[in-house]
Every structure is written in C-alpha cells, then in structure tokens.
Design goal:
The protein is mainly alpha-helical and 284 residues long. The chain is built from eleven helices and no strands. It has helices at 14-36, 41-46, 49-60, 66-88, 99-108, 110-131, 136-141, 149-184, 205-225, 234-257, 261-267. Helix 8 runs antiparallel to helix 9.
Length: 284
C-alpha cells in the first residue's frame, strides 16, 4: 500500500506505507482546516490513526504475529477510550474547536498562526502520531519471535496506565458536568478547576499516563529486537515534548483565568506525583 511519492528507508514495508499515509492525511487535515477555518481536525484523527497504523501492520502478517497482534490490540483499546472521551465532549461536532487553538490564534495573529498550521498543527503532528506507534515495526521484522517477560510487563503497565488515564478523565468529566450544571442554575462556583481525586496528586494525571503508555509501548520494540536504543524511540520522546509544550500553554491560560491556579501549581506536581522540579510553580 505504498503511495510511492516519497523515497525513504522504510519504503516497501507496512510501517513505510503508514508513514506515506500519515503524510497524505496530514495534507488532508491541513486542507480541511483551511477550508472550514476549524483547527480541531487533527484532534479528531488523533485517536483513530495510531490504531489504524498498527492494524495495517498486523494485517500484513495476516494477524499471525503474536507480538504485533498484542501491540495492535492495546492501541485499539487506547483509541476506543480516547475516541469515546472526545465524542462525549462534542469533539466530533464540526463546529467544535479546542479552546487552545482559539487562544493560539489570538496570541499569534492570522499570518503566524497559518504558518504554524501549515507546518505543525496538522503535518508535524501526523508524523508524531506515526512515530509513537513505530515500535510495532520492530515486532513486524521478527514475526515468529515468541512473547517474553518484557512483553507481558509492558502489556500490564500499558493497561494499568490506561486505567489511570480513564479514571482521571472520568473525574474531570464529572467535575465539568457539575460545573456546567451549577452555572446553568446560577449557583456560585467556589472551585473553578479540579483539585481533588487524582488531581490532588498531579495537575495532569491523564497526560502523565499518556506519556507513560507510549514509553511503555517502546518496550515491545526492545523485547522484539533486544536493543534498548533505536530510531523508533523518537516517538515517545517527540510525544513527551509535544505534551509538555501543550501543558505549558494550557496552564498559562488557566493561570490567567483563575487567581488560585498558581497556588495549585505551587503545591501539586505537574505530572508525576510527589516529584517536583524547580520552577514548577510557574508552569509545567
């Protein structure tokens, strides 16, 4: 299924085909954002494409490679959860747009935002989506290699982090729904942002779990290849940098909206419970 319009070392492999597909989809997402002036198209494909990429790789082996199948199944579970969470928040409604894109447009202005959109919002993020599932290629290269203890450890950790992320999103959903109800009823909002449950240990337990899942996913590549360092590790690294940047931006918005947010930053770690970094009270 290679599109053949770009030469790269992975051409002729299923993961190479998914790289071609990600480039094509990046262009389509960019075009849709320009035509509709809605920049959340990348958010709508974010939960779908990784599972699609993994299924393409698994299908190329007729779903007969245990490690590839396990990796694909875990990513499908991740995608189902994330798709559900976005759908119930209205993320698939054509008029809906993530508030961070609106804030970015206001800060950058029309010209600079369109430059960002043409380079990062859709194209670069589609490549990041491809990168963080690229460890499946290492399993594809060795389809007959049996599962080992590292695979089962990775699977258990991935599922545990998925559960934590699900709980965090459920807590945030319940809080936001109650907040909307109170606003509609004209009631005072004493606490405008969530600080209880998992959010009392981490300001972003969902993001912490998300980052952890894709570092754990990389362990499957290690289990398959026996190598701790190779190019597919760029996926979890690039995703971590992307999420940390997103957190910094989102927290700058929250700190400007809510007078008490800086106090919350000062006492609650940004990602990992009980782990604080110098200057974390000022941001992520």
């Amino acid at each position: 299924m290679d599109f053949g319009f770009i030469g790269h070392p992975l051409a002729g492999t299923p993961i190479g085909a998914t790289l071609d597909l990600s480039i094509v989809l990046g262009a389509v997402v960019w075009l849709l954002s320009v035509v509709t002036r809605n920049y959340s198209w990348i958010d709508r494909v974010w939960s779908i494409c990784p599972a699609l990429f993994c299924l393409i790789v698994a299908a190329s082996l007729d779903f007969e490679a245990p490690r590839v199948n396990l990796m694909a199944a875990l990513v499908v579970l991740w995608g189902v959860r994330l798709t559900f969470n976005l759908a119930r928040k209205g993320g698939f409604r054509l008029g809906d747009e993530d508030y961070r894109w609106t804030a970015t447009k206001e800060r950058l202005g029309p010209l600079r935002f369109q430059l960002l959109n043409a380079t990062f919002v859709a194209p670069a993020q589609m490549v990041v989506l491809w990168l963080f599932v690229s460890p499946v290629h290492q399993a594809w290269l060795r389809p007959e290699a049996p599962l080992n203890w590292l695979d089962w450890l990775a699977a258990a950790l991935f599922l545990a982090l998925l559960v934590i992320e699900t709980v965090a999103d459920e807590q945030m959903w319940a809080f936001q729904q109650d907040k909307k109800r109170r606003i509609a009823a004209g009631e005072a909002i004493a606490q405008p942002f969530l600080t209880t449950g998992l959010y009392s240990y981490s300001r972003h337990p969902n993001y912490a779990s998300e980052i952890g899942m894709w570092w754990v996913f990389y362990l499957f590549a290690v289990a398959a290849s026996g190598e701790w360092v190779h190019w597919s590790g760029l996926g979890c690294i690039s995703l971590t940098l992307l999420i940390v940047g997103s957190i910094r931006f989102a927290e700058s918005i929250s700190a400007s909206k809510y007078p008490g947010y800086r106090a919350y930053q000062a006492k609650t770690p940004v990602l990992i419970p009980f782990l604080r970094f110098s200057g974390s009270a000022r941001g992520a």
